[in-house]
Amino acid sequence: MRRLLILSLLMLSALPFVSAALDPAQYLYEGESASAISTVDFTIASSTSAYKLVSISGAPAFLLKDGEPIRDAAAAQAALKEYYSKTAYLSATELSELKTKVASFNASRNFMTNYGPAESTCKQNIGLGLRPCNSLASCTQLASIVCSLFGTGGGCDVSILASYTYDYSKNVKDLDDRINSATSALNTMTFETASEKLETIELSLNGAKDAASKIKTSKLRFPAPGDTCMDCIGVCPTMKFDIASIDAAISAAGTYKRRVEPLKNLGQTAASLVAAEDERLTYKLNTALYAIYSAKFDAIKNTSGNVSEEAELAALTVADEQFAAMLVDLREAKAKIDTGLALRNFTSMNESLSIYQSAAAQLNEALLNNFTAPYMELEDAQDTANDKLLAASWGIDKNDAARLEGFVALATRKSDIDRSFDPPMTAGQYNEFGAAYLSLAVDTEKFMASGNNAQKTVLGLGTSIGQKSVDGAMAITATMTPVNFKTRQRIAPYIPPVVLFLTDLSLLSMALIVFVGGMIYFRGVFAHKIVLGAWVLGLVAFAGFLLIGTVAFYYGILGQSSNMASFTEFFSQVQSSPSGSVISDISAATAEGVVAMDSCSSQIEGQLLPMGKSVRRFEINGGTCRFLNVTNETNVTVEVPANDCLGMIADEPVFYLSYSETSLVPQFSVVVQKQATIVGNAEYHERCDIANVLG
């Protein structure tokens, strides 16, 4: 009831003519302007009220009585009848002038010639004055009489005269009929028949003019000066019709016919006018209601946010009957509202708005209560499993059949889970799949941890020795001068062999002390040359074995491990470092490759920043290095020679991106430099596996 009261008040406020005179300017359609409005004031004899006919762009739009629209078709017809009787129906003067023009044209048929009135003289000369003829046979009989009476010397040809007389007789009769029809219509015209009579007058006068044109060119005529006719027989004067009068009458009849068009069916004219009023009044009301309802709909949508889009996306992931039913209600209500607004049909608008608001609120509540949480958790578990498998793939030795078989088993297991994953599913199903992915991730971690075979154990030992020795040296160096990435690259290769040399020197020194001490303590025993020789040979052998072992360890183990590390070892450096850098070497990259590498660089930065790392990004192109996320005070990107970039990087983990049409497995190092080297094509960099694994 309260809604009905509010709607009624809105409708009353949208109809200003209830309490004041209607203002036509408030009822214009879109695209119309006030300049198109025209009005005519009039009164009718039976009323003291003031009437006004309002036209817009020349078409009647409102019929007002004392400022208010006449909404009854019968009342409108009565008012219009009196209005059009004064404005559209022919006045006595107009009717008299039209009759005069017709009479003037008709009288010109008998303009005076030297032989008498033109048409009468012609009829007399060809015998039509004596007896009429209306067929070729009767005209032949008449021609025979004329030739016998007036023809001399055989110069009268009956057949020719008969033919010409017959044509002339037909045209004269046609002219008579047309003039009689027009005259009769003029004499019998009334208000109700004006449109029909004027149509008859216009058609009759056009026919009369055509008949006059044929009479004027009759072969009976005697050619006037300037008129050449070789086969005319010269028995009738050439006609001089008052064409100006008949043209004026035709034009006037056409003008009056258009003017009295509303009188043709005054009832329909009145009904059309009332319908036009209703349309404009309804348009005004609907325009007001459209503004109200569209604003209310917008307010509901603003309150509920993007619930429609979010709910649609949620329905694609989570299967829930109650949620689906609410979404159906939302869709249907929205469709009805959109259609109602488009068609300006507000019959069930309040109900549809109420349903939409209720459904939106329920869906919002469901979304706020983590309705899609199981799916999101599943996605996280899936991403974790993917990242673990990807990291594991980087450490697989394709020549190690056992390890390769183990990795394939894990990958196959993931494929089996992926094939069974088919959203939308229930929360319980998502939990099951999430547990399966997390279990796979755990098993993959165990697989990675179990990969320390003999070779990897030795290489890991080399990496550990090399890293600790270089890190220790860098720490000592840092007390004297700042250490950066370039400094580490330059110094680090020499530190492991120096450490090995010092270690060997210490061991040899200890061996020499033992050798000399033994000789002194057991000097009696060493008095024998054979014992002494064996002792010296043992010392030389120890020194030789130590030297060979050191060289083998350096070149076989330490040398390799200086440039090789696992992702886990590199990621450990990333986690312990407060900062990191990303270098994109686009020197050989295609245009697509440049875009992809920049995207990957941004993704890496996006993963490091949430870890609390400060990040700088560089782009090397030939001999130039550009800072991607650093600008100077004039907001211009900083550029330096390429060789200077490394000097700008601290002793920190570096992600080095390079372009190649052949994508390679990422390489990691933590000794000479803390670096991840990523080489690949545009598609590979666009995928940016390294960023995914970091996250």
- Percent strand equals 5-15%
The beta-strand count equals: 15
What's the pLDDT, averaged over the residues? Answer: 78
Rg to the nearest angstrom?
56 Å
What is the end-to-end distance? 59 Å
**Which class best fits the helix and strand makeup?**
alpha/beta
Low-confidence stretches: 1-19, 452-467, 551-562
* Total number of helices: 25
Q: Please give the share of residues in helix.
A: 55-70%
Globally, the shape reads elongated
What does the model show?
The protein has 695 residues and is of the alpha/beta class. The chain has 25 helices and 15 strands. The strands form four sheets. It has a seven-stranded mixed β-sheet. The protein has a four-stranded antiparallel β-sheet with strand order 1-2-3-4. Strands 5-6 form a two-stranded antiparallel sheet. Helix 11 crosses helix 13 and helix 17 crosses helix 20. The N terminus is likely disordered.
Question: What descriptors fit this protein?
Answer:
695 residues; alpha/beta; 7-stranded mixed sheet; 4-stranded antiparallel sheet; disordered N terminus
Short description:
With 695 residues, the chain is an alpha/beta fold.
What secondary-structure arrangement, pairings included, does this model have?
Layout: H1 2-13, E1 37-42, E2 51-56, E3 59-65, E4 68-69, H2 73-87, H3 92-107, E5 112-113, E6 116-117, H4 118-126, H5 136-150, H6 158-188, H7 194-216, E7 221-222, E8 236-237, H8 243-259, H9 261-264, H10 266-304, H11 307-315, H12 321-343, H13 349-368, H14 373-394, H15 401-420, H16 427-449, H17 454-478, H18 485-491, H19 495-521, H20 529-561, H21 567-576, E9 579-585, H22 591-608, E10 614-621, E11 624-631, E12 637-641, H23 642-648, E13 654-659, E14 667-669, E15 675-680, H24 682-687, H25 689-694
Parallel strand pairs: 7-8, 9-10, 9-13, 13-15
Antiparallel strand pairs: 1-2, 2-3, 3-4, 5-6, 10-11, 11-12, 14-15
Helix pairs in contact: 2-10, 3-6, 3-8, 5-6, 6-7, 7-8, 10-13, 11-12, 11-13, 12-13, 14-15, 14-16, 15-16, 17-20, 19-20
